[in-house]
């Protein structure tokens, strides 16, 4: 599903990723752990096509498409159709309702409004938020906001979801709920998840836990 080869990243003189190689299978849930500054977010952003590797020798393939060879326009389309993102801070647009926030990636894809809304409602119902269609982010709890963000990530039925500290801002109960949800979604929709987390419980639930130190993956534990 994902193959990353020889990924380097420099920020000026700072060598943040030092030749990462990684293969992730379809339907696999992989967690990435490690100390702050190890390069986890940078790696996730590069795997998720939001950032580029520094060296031309580095290559990212997602579903057999070499994403770092795509033009910006083709890459935006590829990302919109194949990849979902969940961040620590939900990044919902404050002036839009839950339903509208979820529909935005579908509108970008060109899905007609009635179809996008029907799908968004289906997702909100599945996530236990059928009473929150018309609520704006500031009218929702942290856990609810994060579930709306999950629905937004899912609306175009991406095959890969990248999550960066998805439960970092949640109370214990909401975090556990969200973690269970990832596994349910994988079972239901066969999605692949790559999750950067400091949450030990979530990291250990993953099929494979990768440890990053100083710009390299130094260990892997399969559960
Ligand atoms: P982690 O997610 O493991 O905490 P990051 O990938 O966020 O690590 O950061 C790795 C290193 O790269 C850190 O030293 C950080 O300060 C640096 N870094 C991250 N993003 C940038 C940037 N845009 N410009 C300069 N340095 C950055």
Describe the fold and architecture.
By secondary structure, the chain is of the alpha/beta class. It has one domain: P-loop containing nucleotide triphosphate hydrolases (Rossmann fold), CATH 3.40.50. Helices cover 37% and strands 26% of the residues. The protein contains 7 helices and 10 strands. The strands form 2 sheets. A 6-stranded mixed sheet has the order 6-7-8-3-9-10. Strands 2-1-4-5 form a 4-stranded antiparallel sheet, covered by helices on one side. A hairpin with a 2-residue loop joins strand 9 and strand 10 (216-222). Helix 3 (98-109) packs parallel to helix 5 and helix 5 runs parallel beside helix 6. The model has no long low-confidence stretch (mean pLDDT 93). The structure holds adenosine-5'-diphosphate. The site of adenosine-5'-diphosphate (ADP) has 11 residues, from strand 2 and helix 1.
